[in-house]
Amino acid sequence: MFKVRIEKLRKKITQLGLDAFLVMAPENRRYLSGFTGSSGVLLITKNQNFLLTDFRYIDQAKIEAPDFQVIRYDGSLVETIKNILERLFIETLGFEEDFITYKQYRELREGIPKIKIFPEAGLVEKIRMIKDQEEIATIARAAKVADEAFNYILGKIRPGLTEIEIALELEFFMRSQGASSTSFSTIVASGARSALPHGVASEKLIEKGDFVTLDFGCIYQGYCSDMTRTVVIGEPDRKQREVYQVVLEAQILALENIKAGMSCQEIDALSRTYIAEKGYGQYFGHGLGHGVGLAVHEHPSLSPRDNTELVPNMVVTVEPGIYLPGWGGVRIEDLVVVEEAGLKNLTDSPKDLIVI
Ligand code: ZN
Ligand code: ZN
To answer: If we measure between CA atoms, which residue out of 243, 209, 235, 206 comes closest to residue 320?
Structure first.
């Protein structure tokens, strides 16, 4: 599995005319090597794979990353990289421009003045977009834990609790099911706060009449889940029903049409146009969805700006929303696997407006 992934990267490196490539993004490091430690760098050359890490992780790295020569560095990481590059007569080196600090860049620049270094973006991320069956099964498990957590929390939500208390219950439940952590800061946004697309749980009390948007997920064996449901406390008024219905129909429209061969833009446009036709276009300010895998936000992005073509086994969210400042908002989010003729929905929680 790792060999296949490394070869895909190596092909890209060769096409770019690079002798070697430095991988610093934690998710890319794990994806290519299997190494789960929090510190380390991969150096992939035309025919060798190195994993550089410090003394805390040497044994772990040797076990988790058998396809790599594990090299310990004690002092300067750049010095260690330099030694390998010189020994192998490497002349051109690519690095991940999104995952290097200015200090590391400067050290690299000054430490290896004879080697040409080239910034690259998204090399490994593009490979990660298409999942293998094992990855899909793991993400499905993470999604199931989130579904079960939603079912659990429905029995707990009541007026008088704070958003943070609800978030804590959700998180506790997911951890108790084997999740190692949440995949991002749990969003519990109630009342007027539900108009904040990223309203991380606060000390606000849940009140009668509130919409409560719950956007959450967990990490299970390294892979993320991500789902959103919006519920209402007490009988909804007409406006609440209307806004909820528009979001729901916009989501179903996208779900019914997604299939391999469509572009991310096209799918985004389906929900976006529908919401605009209903008069709420200006209140849907974010993309329709995003890839999910080792990272909770990864390629591709279902947005007006991404023309990536959907390919079977991409895993993406579909999450339209309407946010009315000062009033509240609704978002509904499912996690789906793109298939040749449609999709497989990994999120199983009910979507009709739930009244608590
Ligand atoms: Zn989400
Ligand atoms: Zn999301």
So the answer is: 243
Quote the ligand 2 centre to 315 CA distance (angstroms): 11
Given a cut of 90, whether residue 351 has pLDDT beyond it is yes
Q: Rounded to the nearest whole angstrom, what is the distance from the C-alpha of residue 217 to the centroid of ligand 1?
A: 7
CA of 319 to the centre of ligand 1 (A): 8
Q: Exposed, middle or buried, 332 (CB in 10 Å: 0-12/13-18/19+)?
A: buried
Counting ligands in written order, the one closest to the CA of 213 is 1
Confidence at residue 108, expressed as pLDDT on a 0 to 100 scale: 87
What is the Å distance from ligand 2's center to 36 Cα?
24
Average pLDDT score over the chain: 96
Per-residue pLDDT, averaged over 79-107, amounts to 92
Residues in contact with 268: Cβ distance below 8 Å, sequence separation at least 6, in sequence order: 287, 288, 289, 302, 303, 304, 306
Ligand nearest to the CA of residue 230, numbered in listed order: 1
Question: Which ligand has the minimum distance to the alpha carbon of residue 288?
Answer: 2
Delimit the domains of the chain by residue range: 2-127, 133-355
Ligand 1 centroid from CA 146, angstroms: 11
Distance 292 CA to ligand 2 centre (A): 8
So what's the pLDDT on residue 160?
97
* Chain centre to alpha carbon of residue 234: 33
CA of 112 to the centre of ligand 1 (A): 42
CA distance 219 to 132: 18
User: pLDDT tens for residues 266-320?
Assistant: 999 999 999 999 999 999 999 999 999 999 999 999 999 999 999 999 999 999 9
Q: How far is the CA of 175 from the centre of ligand 1 (A)?
A: 18
Given the candidates 3.40.350.10, 3.40.50.1000, 2.30.30.140, 3.40.50.150, the CATH classification of the domain at 2-127 is 3.40.350.10
Q: Which CATH class is domain 133-355?
A: alpha beta
What does the alpha-carbon distance between residue 56 and residue 37 come to, in Å, rounded to a whole number? Answer: 9
Say if residue 112's pLDDT is above 90: no
How remote is the CA of residue 81 from the centroid of ligand 2, in Å? 37
Which stretch of 48-52, 112-116, 236-240, 332-336 has the lowest confidence by average pLDDT?
112-116
Instruction: State the sign of the Cα–Cα–Cα–Cα dihedral 320, 356, 216, 199.
Output: positive
pLDDT tens per residue, range 242-258: 999 999 999 999 999 99
